[in-house]
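Query structure, 151 tokens:
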């Protein structure tokens, strides 16, 4: 079983907090951090990353903060993971064929590549909205045939 990185968990928590705000106003990183119980410095970096990916809008200044600008139904779990962690693979050799000492002798590289593709496709099929709100009607998410946000 693959594990979600802590940054991905915190990003999901922050996104859910932002969606559940009734007024949609700007929210400071400190407010989010305090509300969801995450370290403020880490939360600020996560929000900056989400802003760079165009999932959030950031406003600087005394009255500044972050505002959700992307529809969570249009962001896949795969997109969020790659925004937070960079390109990922189940095993090191998927990302870097030189990362393995037994590259020439490995008899499972091909099956692991197939598994990696299937896992990534599974993550691509799950929207953040569907993950956070499974009881709501699923909305379509971006696929390779439609415009994806930052992948």
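Result returned for the query:
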């Amino acid at each position: 079983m693959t594990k979600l990185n802590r940054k991905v968990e915190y990003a999901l928590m922050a996104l859910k907090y932002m969606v559940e705000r009734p007024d949609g106003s700007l929210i400071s990183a400190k407010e989010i951090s305090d509300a969801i119980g995450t370290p403020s410095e880490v939360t600020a970096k996560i929000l900056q990353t989400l802003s760079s990916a165009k999932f959030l809008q950031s406003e600087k200044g005394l009255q500044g903060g972050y505002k959700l600008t992307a529809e969570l139904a249009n962001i896949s779990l795969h997109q969020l993971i790659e925004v937070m962690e960079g390109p990922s693979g189940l095993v090191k050799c998927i990302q870097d064929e030189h990362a393995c000492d037994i590259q020439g002798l490995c008899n499972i590289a091909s099956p692991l590549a197939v598994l990696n593709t299937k896992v990534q496709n599974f993550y691509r099929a799950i929207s953040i909205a569907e993950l956070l709100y499974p009881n709501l009607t699923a909305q379509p998410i971006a696929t390779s045939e439609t415009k994806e946000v930052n992948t």
